[in-house]
UniProtKB/TrEMBL annotation:
InterPro entries: ATL_DNA_repair, MethylDNA_cys_MeTrfase_DNA-bd, MethylDNA_cys_MeTrfase_DNAb, WH-like_DNA-bd_sf. GO terms for molecular function: methyltransferase activity. This is Cysteine methyltransferase. Gene3D superfamilies: Winged helix-like DNA-binding domain superfamily/Winged helix DNA-binding domain (1.10.10.10). It comes from Halomonas heilongjiangensis. Pfam families: DNA_binding_1. It comes from the Bacteria.
Length: 97
């Protein structure tokens, strides 16, 4: 992936407000050619201590993606006031933008 595209992804992720979420596809649509999978790949490459709110990016089904950090992601979102329904989905009103 081109570095410029990765930087676009990181800039968008940095703009997601606390208590809100967006999808991999939503971020991809705001870039100059990324796909949802490319967004996920860029987030997996974040170095330790990066400070970006990666936890605010969820799947199109409004559920957390199946990855090793899903429990941490859920805890961080709950700490920001994001609730999950009985099926593990985030309320659509929390979607940004």
């Amino acid at each position: 992936m081109k570095r410029e595209l990765e930087e676009q992804i990181y800039t968008i992720v940095a703009a997601i407000p606390p208590g809100r979420v967006t999808t991999y596809g939503g971020i991809a649509a705001m870039t100059d050619g990324a796909t949802p999978r490319m967004v996920g790949a860029a987030l997996r490459r974040l170095p330790d201590g990066h400070g970006l709110p990666w936890h605010r990016v969820i799947s199109a089904s409004r559920r957390l993606a199946d990855h090793g950090g899903a429990r941490t992601q859920r805890d961080l979102l709950i700490a920001e006031g994001v609730a999950f329904d009985v099926r593990g989905r985030v309320d659509a009103e929390r979607l940004w933008p």
